[in-house]
Design brief:
Layout (H helix, E strand, L loop, with lengths): L2 E6 L10 H11 L2 E7 L4 E6 L1 H5 L4 H21 L5 E9 L5 E10 L4 E8 L1 H23 L3 E6 L2 E5 L1 H7 L21 H10 L10 E6 L5 E13 L2 E10 L1 H19 L3 E5 L5 E4 L1 H7 L3 H4 L4 H5 L5 H6 L3 E7 L5 E11 L2 E8 L1 H16 L3 E5 L5 E4 L1 H7 L3 H4 L8 E3 L12 H8 L3 E9 L5 E10 L10 E7 L1 H15 L9 H9 L8 E9 L1 H8 L1 H18 L5 E6 L2 E6 L5 H16 L2 E3 L2 E3 L2 E9 L7 H17 L5 E3 L2 H22 L4 E9 L5 E12 L3 E3 L1 H9 L3 H22 L5 E6 L1 H4 L4 H12 L6 E6 H6 L1 H13 L3 E7 L6 H5 L5 E4 L1 H6 L4 H16 L3 E4 L5 H10 L3 E3 L9 H15 L1
Parallel strand pairs: 28-29, 31-33, 33-34, 34-35, 35-36, 36-37, 37-38
Antiparallel strand pairs: 1-4, 2-3, 2-6, 4-5, 5-6, 7-8, 7-11, 9-10, 10-11, 12-13, 12-16, 14-15, 15-16, 17-18, 17-22, 19-20, 20-21, 21-22, 23-25, 23-28, 24-25, 26-27, 30-31, 30-38, 31-32
Helix pairs in contact: 17-21, 18-19, 19-20, 23-24, 24-26
Bound molecules: ligand C2E and calcium ion (2 copies).
C-alpha cells in the first residue's frame, strides 16, 4: 500500500472552513466522506459516507478498513504537534477489484480524537502519474531522438542528447557540455544561426527549419536542418536546438533531381499510365516523338496518343520489350521499341524511336548492296554472316552457299603463287588481334576454276575489345587492273619489237651486285652494216631482221641469262658466273655464229655480222650498270675497228684508246680550224687512152704527237660531228684551186672529191660548191663528187634532191664503193649519176675468184646500160689491170698506177704518160 503523508503548514490552514460546510461539501461531491477516529481506543467513532467511498456495505468492514487506512496518521499524530493537520494518500483496492487513491486529511480535534476527511483522489493521482509518465516519455524522446537536441545558454552548451554526441563524433555528452555552441557549428553557418536566435524573443518561439553545417570533432561536417526554440535553463533564457542530419535526404533529393532530369532529357519517350492506360506523365521526349503536348496527353488513353494499341501487360508478359509501329500526331509511322514495367499504380512505358536508325540501316544496306566493292561480314566464330551482291559476283559463290560457311573456305595464293596458310589470312589475323589491315593482295582460286586477284581490307566489326572479333572484309577485284599494270610494266621494261627487256631492265640487272665468287659477263652487240639493210631494204625488213636476231639470241643463251635490246641494232647479253675470259669468248663466238647464219626474208638471203664488246665484272667491281654498259660499248667499238664479226674485251688500254679517240676528235677540230690538214691527189687513168683522166683528192692529217692519222679514223671522227662539213669544204676548196691551176698550165684533168653522207644533209653544201667553182674558175664539169652507196641509200629522196641540185650546177656525180651495199639498179636509175666506182674488195678478188670477175662483169654491164662511166679502185697488179681492161672498164685507180701524193707527183705521172704516148 502506497502512502504519502504530508504535513500541512500553519499557513495552509490559516482560514479554517466551517466544519459543517466541509462535511456538506464533501458529501455533495460524492467522493468524500467525513470520519472521526479515537486514537486511544483505536477505533472509528463515526463517519459519514465512508461506506460509499470505500464501496463497502457492512459497518464492521468500514471500521476494519478504516482502522487500517488511518494507521499511518495515527503514528504521525502520536509524535506530531497537536495543532497539525495530517494528510495521507493511500492506494485502496475496492472489494470489486478496482483501484482507488484516497486522500485522508485529519486533525486532532480533542487530544484523542482524530477528525478527518477521506477523499477519492484517484483522478488527480492518475493525472499526476500521467504527467510523470509524460515527462519520462519526453525525456526518453529527447534522449533517444535520432535528431540531435541540445540546449545552449549564454553561448555555452548545457545539454545534449545522444544523437548530438553522435553528430559531432564525441564520446559522451561531457565532451560537449560546457563548450561554446559556436565551436560546434561550421563558421559558414554561424552568422545565420545567430540571426535566427536573435529573432526568438519570446519564450517558446521557434525558428523556421534552416540548413546549417555542424562541425564534427574530426574536422568533417554534417549537413543538418536546424530548428531553434527559445526556452529557459535553470530560469535563465536559453535555446534548445533540434538538428536533423539531412545528408541522406540531400543525396536522395539529388538522386531524384537526377532522375527527373533524366526523364526530361532522354530522347526516349517515357510515359506513365494508370492501370487503365490513362497517361499520368508524358516527358518532353514523348512530346517530340509523338507530337502531342504533355498538357494534352495527360489523362488521355495512351493508345490514342501513340496511334496504336498498347498493352503494357502483354509486353511485360512477353519479356518487357516489344517492337511496334506507332503513329505520330501527323499520322507518319514510327518504328518504336517499347519497354514496359509495372509500378505501384500503373505502368511506365519507355518508347525508343528507332525510325531514323531503321532508315539509316535501310540506306546502309542499300548502299552496301550497290557497292562495286565486295563486303563480307564474318562472325566471331569465323563463319560468314552476310555477303553483298558484289562479293557474290567477285567470289563466284551464291549468298546461300556463303552464309554460314567458313570464311577460310577459299584457297588464296600470294604474289609468288604460293598457297597461303589459313592462319596467315589477313581477316583471320584481324579477328584474332583486332588489328585492321588494308590492301592485302592475294589471288583467289574460285570454285569454278577461275582465278581472281583481290585487294582485301579487314577491320573489326565493332570497337569492343573482346577477341576474337567479328570482321568486315571488303575487297575489290583487281585482276584486270593488275593485268593492265603488268602489261604497262612490261611495256615500260621491254622492247616492243623483239619482246626483249629494254635498257631500263638491263641497267637494273647490271646494278644488282655480282654473285659472290662469280663473274658477270656483259656482251654489247652491234650489228655490222645494219643501217645498210634498213636504208636499202626498208625499215620493215630491218625490223624483221632484228626480230629474228633477237629470237636467235634468246635461244642461244641459258635461261638465267638476260638478253636485251638497247635500241637500233644494239643488243646486250648478260651472263652470270662466266668465271674465265675463255668462256666469255666462247659465248661471243657462239653468238656471232648464230647471228651470222643467213636471214631469209622474202626469198632474200641476208647476211648479218655482229661486233661484240665484252666486259667482265667480279664481285668487287664498283661500276654502275650504266658504266658497265658504256665500257662494253667501248669494247664493241674496238671490235668494229677490227672489221665485221669481231669481238673485243674491254680493258683499261681500251678505255685509254677511247680516251685518245676522244682527244683526237678535239685535236682534229683544232686542226681543221687552223687549216692544218693537207690534200693529196691520186691519179685516175683512162684505160682507152692511158692518160690521167682525173685525180681523187684525199685529205691527210699529221697529228703533232701521234704522227700521220689514217683518214679512215679521222674522217669517221669528223663525221661524228658537223666538223665533216668544214673539213669537206676545205678539201674541196684547196683541191679545186690546185686543179684549176693545172687547167691553167694546160693539164685540164678532172677533180674527184669525196662527199661524206652527212654533207648531203648540209644546206650549205650546194652554195659552197657553187662558190668554189666561181672563185677557182674550175669548170663545173671538171668536178666529180663521190658519194658512197650507203650515203645515197640512207635517205634516197633527200639524196636525190641534193644530187639534182648539184647536177644543176653542172657538177658530175659518182657512186663510190659500189658493191658494198644493197642498192639495186632500179634505185640507181632514179639518181642523176655519171660514174660508178667499183669497190676495192672486188678488184682485189679479181684473178683470185671467178665469182669476183662475174660480179665485176655484171656491174660494168649494168653501169654501161645506164650510161655510167665505170672506175675500178685499188688496182695493185698488172693482172687486175688486164682483167679490167678485158671487161671494158673505163677508168682505173690504184697503187699500180699512182699512189696518192702531192700535186707535183700527179704532174709527174702525167708527164710520164706523155712520154709513153710520144
Ligand atoms: P676512198 O674514197 O675509197 O678512197 C680511196 C682509198 O683507197 C684511199 O685511201 C686510197 O689511198 C686507197 N687506195 C687507192 N689505191 C689503192 C690501192 O691500190 N691499194 C690500196 N690498198 N688502197 C688504195 P685513203 O686515202 O686512206 O682514204 C680512205 C678513205 O677515206 C677514202 O676512201 C674516203 O672514203 C675517205 N676520205 C679520204 N679523204 C677524204 C676527204 O677529203 N673527204 C671525205 N669525205 N672522205 C675522204
Ligand atoms: Ca673515193
Ligand atoms: Ca672508194
Amino acid at each position: 500500500m502506497n502512502a504519502v503523508v504530508r504535513r500541512i503548514d500553519e499557513s495552509d490552514t490559516a482560514a479554517k472552513p466551517d466544519y459543517e460546510l466541509v462535511v456538506d461539501l464533501a458529501l455533495s461531491v460524492g467522493s468524500a466522506a467525513m470520519w472521526s477516529f479515537d486514537v486511544v481506543a483505536d477505533r472509528l467513532i463515526s463517519h459519514s459516507g465512508l461506506d460509499n467511498l470505500l464501496e463497502l456495505t457492512g459497518e464492521s468492514e468500514v471500521h476494519t478498513v478504516m482502522a487500517e487506512l488511518v494507521r499511518p496518521l495515527l503514528v504521525a499524530a502520536h509524535t506530531g504537534a497537536g495543532w497539525q493537520d495530517f494528510e495521507l494518500e493511500q492506494n485502496y483496492e475496492t472489494p470489486g477489484g478496482g483501484q482507488k487513491w484516497l486522500q485522508l486529511r485529519a486533525r486532532l480535534s480533542a487530544d484523542t480524537v482524530l477528525t478527518g476527511v477521506a477523499m477519492d483522489v484517484t483522478a488527480r493521482q492518475e493525472d499526476r502519474q500521467a504527467l510523470a509518465d509524460l515527462a519520462d516519455r519526453y525525456r526518453l524522446l529527447v534522449e533517444l531522438s535520432p535528431d540531435a537536441i541540445c540546449v545552449h545558454e549564454a553561448g555555452m552548451v548545457k545539454y545534449t542528447n545522444a544523437a548530438g554526441v553522435r553528430f559531432v563524433g564525441a564520446h559522451g555528452p561531457d565532451e560537449i557540455v560546457g563548450r561554446p555552441i559556436t565551436s560546434l557549428v561550421h563558421p559558414e553557418s554561424i552568422p545565420e544561426m545567430m540571426r535566427r536566435i536573435k529573432e526568438l524573443s519570446d519564450h517558446g518561439a521557434a525558428s523556421e527549419p534552416a540548413e546549417a553545417k555542424i562541425l564534427r570533432f574530426d574536422g568533417t561536417t554534417v549537413d543538418v536542418e536546424a530548428v531553434s526554440v527559445r526556452t529557459t535553463w535553470e530560469g535563465r533564457p536559453a535555446f534548445q536546438v533540434i538538428m536533423r542530419d539531412v545528408t541522406a535526404q540531400k543525396a536522395a533529393e539529388a538522386a531524384l533531381h537526377y532522375q527527373a532530369a533524366l526523364v526530361s532529357h532522354v530522347s526516349d519517350a517515357i510515359i506513365g499510365t494508370t492501370e487503365d492506360g490513362l497517361v499520368t506523365s508524358w516527358n518532353p521526349a514523348a512530346q517530340t516523338v509523338y507530337g502531342h503536348a504533355a498538357a494534352d496527353a495527360e489523362g488521355q488513353p495512351v493508345q490514342d496518343l501513340v496511334g496504336a494499341p498498347l498493352d503494357p501487360r502483354a509486353i511485360i508478359r512477353s519479356g518487357g520489350v516489344a517492337q511496334a509501329v506507332h503513329r505520330k500526331a501527323d499520322g507518319s509511322p514510327l518504328t518504336i521499341r517499347v519497354s514496359a514495367a509495372e509500378m505501384d499504380s500503373g505502368y511506365v512505358l519507355v518508347c525508343a524511336d528507332e525510325t531514323a536508325r531503321r532508315r539509316a540501316e535501310q540506306y546502309f544496306s542499300t548502299v552496301v548492296a550497290s557497292l562495286e566493292e565486295g563486303v563480307v561480314v564474318v562472325g566471331r566464330d569465323g563463319l560468314v554472316e552476310s555477303a553483298n551482291p558484289a562479293a557474290q559476283r567477285i567470289l563466284g559463290v551464291r549468298e546461300e552457299d556463303m552464309i554460314g560457311s567458313l570464311s577460310t573456305a577459299g584457297q588464296l595464293y600470294d604474289e609468288n603463287n604460293a598457297r597461303i596458310p589459313e592462319e596467315h589470312y589477313a581477316f583471320v589475323k584481324t579477328s584474332r588481334t583486332g588489328v585492321p589491315r588494308n590492301g592485302w593482295v592475294v589471288r583467289l582460286r574460285r570454285s569454278d576454276g577461275r582465278s581472281v586477284w583481290l585487294s582485301i581490307s579487314c577491320r573489326p566489326l565493332t570497337v569492343e575489345s573482346s577477341l576474337p572479333a567479328a570482321v568486315v572484309i571488303s575487297f575489290t577485284d583487281i585482276t584486270e587492273s593488275r593485268a593492265i599494270a603488268a602489261r604497262l610494266e612490261h611495256q615500260a621494261t621491254h622492247d616492243g619489237l623483239t619482246g626483249l627487256v629494254n635498257r631500263t631492265l638491263v641497267v637494273q640487272r647490271l646494278n644488282a651486285p655480282v654473285r659472290r665468287r662469280g663473274t658477270r659477263c656483259v656482251l654489247f652487240l652491234d650489228l655490222d652494216k645494219f643501217k645498210l639493210i634498213n636504208d636499202s631494204l626498208g625499215h620493215a625488213v630491218g625490223d624483221q631482221v632484228l626480230v629474228v636476231i633477237g629470237e636467235r639470241l634468246r635461244r642461244c643463251v641459258r635461261a638465267e641469262d638476260l638478253v636485251g635490246r638497247l635500241g637500233g641494232d644494239e643488243f646486250v647479253v648478260i651472263a652470270e658466273d662466266m668465271d674465265q675470259p675463255r668462256k666469255a669468248a666462247a659465248l661471243a663466238e657462239k653468238i656471232r655464229d648464230v647471228v651470222a647464219q643467213p636471214v631469209v626474208l622474202n626469198g632474200r638471203h641476208l647476211h648479218v655480222d655482229v661486233s661484240i664488246g665484252i666486259v667482265l665484272a667480279g664481285p668487287e667491281d664498283t661500276r654502275s650498270g650504266e658504266d658497265a654498259l658504256r665500257d662494253a660499248d667501248v669494247a664493241m667499238y674496238e671490235a668494229k675497228t677490227r672489221g665485221p664479226g669481231r669481238f673485243a674485251f674491254f680493258d683499261v688500254d681500251l678505255r685509254e684508246r677511247m680516251q685518245r679517240h676522244h682527244q683526237l676528235g678535239e685535236d682534229l677540230r683544232d686542226a681543221v680550224r687552223d687549216d692544218l690538214l693537207s690534200v693529196v691527189y691520186q691519179p685516175i687513168i683512162d684505160l682507152k687512152t692511158g692518160a690521167v683522166a682525173s685525180a681523187e683528192a684525199l685529205s691527210r692529217w699529221t697529228h703533232p704527237v701521234h704522227g700521220p692519222v689514217s683518214p679512215v679514223e679521222f674522217i669517221q671522227l669528223a663525221e661524228e660531228s658537223a666538223l665533216i662539213n668544214a673539213l669537206g669544204a676545205q678539201v674541196l676548196s684547196v683541191a679545186a684551186l690546185a686543179i684549176a691551176g693545172l687547167h691553167a698550165d694546160g693539164m685540164p684533168i678532172e677533180l674527184a672529191v669525196n662527199l661524206s653522207p652527212r654533207q648531203l644533209d648540209d644546206p650549205e653544201l650546194v652554195p659552197a660548191v657553187r662558190q668554189v667553182l666561181m672563185r677557182t674558175g674550175l669548170p663545173s664539169d671538171a668536178l666529180c663528187l663521190e658519194i658512197t652507196e650507203n650515203a645515197l641509200m640512207h635517205d634516197p629522196t633527200l639524196a636525190a634532191q641534193t644530187l639534182s641540185r648539184l647536177r644543176d650546177l653542172g657538177v658530175r656525180l659518182a657512186i663510190d664503193d659500189f658493191g658494198t651495199g644493197y642498192s639495186s639498179l632500179a634505185q640507181l636509175r632514179k639518181l642523176p649519176l655519171d660514174q660508178l666506182k667499183i669497190d676495192r674488195s672486188f678488184v682485189t678478188a679479181l684473178g683470185e675468184s671467178r665469182d669476183a670477175e662475174t660480179i665485176v662483169t655484171s656491174i660494168i654491164a649494168m653501169a654501161h646500160a645506164v650510161d655510167l662511166t665505170v672506175v675500178a679502185e685499188g688496182v695493185e697488179t698488172e693482172g687486175q689491170l688486164s682483167v679490167l681492161r678485158r671487161l671494158g672498164c673505163d677508168h682505173v685507180q690504184g697503187y699500180l698506177l699512182g699512189r696518192p701524193g702531192p700535186l707535183e707527183a700527179l704532174i709527174e705521172v702525167n708527164a710520164q704518160f706523155r712520154q709513153e704516148v710520144s
